Amino acid sequence: MRVALKWFSRRSFSRWRGRIDGPHRDVHRYKYLLRRPIVAPIPPPHSSDVHPSLNPLCPPTARRISDHHHHPHLTHIDVERLCISGAVSEASRLLLDLHDRDAHLSLRSYNAVLRSAASAGDVSLSLEVFKDLLKTRLKPDSETYASVASAFTIDDDDHSESLRGLARDVSAIVGENPHALNRLMHAFAESGQTEKAIDLFEQMEGPDVVTYNTVLAALGEAGWVEKMLAVFARMEEGGPGPDIVTYNTVINGLRKAGRADLFGRLVGEMRERGIELELRTYTAVIDGLGRAGRVEEALRVFGEMKKRRVRASVYVYRGLIRGLRKAGKEELADCLEAEMKACASKLVGPWDFKRKK
Question: PPR repeats span which residues (predicted)?
């Protein structure tokens, strides 16, 4: 028997797994496999245990979840299967039913239903699932908010009432914390739905600094300068008060719109409030002044930044060089370009501007 085991280990296990510490280790492994109990395969569930919506042999009329009671054999995996099959309404009802029974749920299942609802353009279903998600211990991610926002892009209907009810219901679920609504507002802005982001902002109660910064960024990206300045004035009068992110956002929006004439007032307000200018502020101001042809002021701001020992970025040099060449000052532009190349390793790059999540 020992010789047979040794022959089996050398000829079979060695060919399958390679030579591993000689044949004796394979013999012990083979003995271990012989001692393992033989487990019979689990038979497939009876047809009565399978939910009708997942059983292809049942007629379509018998596949509706609303026509049946609780099914303990269904899990969150079945929700994803229903979404793949296109049964979005049945998947959402199953998901809500599992939540009511305190079953194990995953964010992946909620995102699957929200994606399917967004593809179908079902706004009411998307909002219902999103509000149910907020009642769980799961934390929505960027995909969650993007799916909810994309559900509004299918049609051009007026969803003001839906957004008003959403703001009211979310506030009742999560309390005074506006984090969820801020993320949803950002998702609206990212998908190009600036008007819906503004509508949601108007329906919020007690917006914080992040709320105002999100709205200001959306308005600046859309080029709505006057509306952005109005919201900024509203924030200064009765809001939480602007911070460094607020001023950077407004200045960057003005830079994109070519409104460099307002830079001086905003920079003066920052200094009055005791807010120090940072690299993002200098970058936006210098680039905006260079685009407007005000290169003398841009050079003065650049000298102030170097005097304060603020580490420069490639964007600052590029903005200055572009403005100088546009103004016809080629020699000064060449000097700055040579200076940029000489200290390229010490400059702040694009990766340094990415905010940590």
Answer: 106-140, 177-207, 208-242, 243-277, 278-312
